[in-house]
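1st attempt posting a full record on here, be nice pls
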Amino acid sequence: MEQGHGTLMRLTKLTDTSWIVHWFTAGHGLIKTVAKGARNPKSPFAGKLDLFFEAELTWAKARSGELHGLREVSVLNTREAIRGDYNAMILSAYCCRLLELSVERDHPEPEISDLLRRALDHVAAKGASIRAMQHFEQELSQHLGIAQAGRQAAPALKDALGGLPPQRAQLLERLLQPVDFPVAKDPICDLK
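the predicted structure (as C-alpha cells):
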C-alpha cells in the first residue's frame, strides 16, 4: 500500500460505477487511480472525490500499467469557493492541465505539488485573475528550468510543451471583457 497527500486534478468515467481519478502528489507526482464503485451513492468514496479536493489517500500500486487501486480518501480541503465561480474553475483547470503536460507520470515533484496547492488555495480565496495565471506560469517555468529573463513565461511554456491548454485563451477572453453594471433608472427622467 502507498500513501500520499494529493490534489484531485481530473475525474474520468471508467464504468457505470467507477472513476479513474488523477492525482498530483508531492511524493509520487502525477498518478492515476481507479475508484471502484465510487459513482454509487452508497460507496465509501461518496462525497470525497471532486475536482481540486486536497486529500490524504491510500492506494494499492498496480502490478503492471499505470492504474493503481484507490483504497481510502480523507478530504482535507474541498476548495468549495472554486466551484461557485466559473472563472475560478477555468483557471484551476488550466493550472492542472498545464501540470499534466509538464511532468512525467509517477515521478515525485514536491515543489510543483506545492505550487499547485498554493495556486488552488489562492484561487479559492481570491478568485481568478490574469495576474494569478501569469504568476503560476512564471513559477512553473522556473521549476521546469525554461524561464527566460525579461520574457513572460507563457511563450516559453508554449515552446517547451508544443502549445498551451485551451482554457488559457478562454480565461483571458472572459477576464478581459468589460463589466457592465446595470444603471438604475431615474423615475423623474422617465416622465417625459
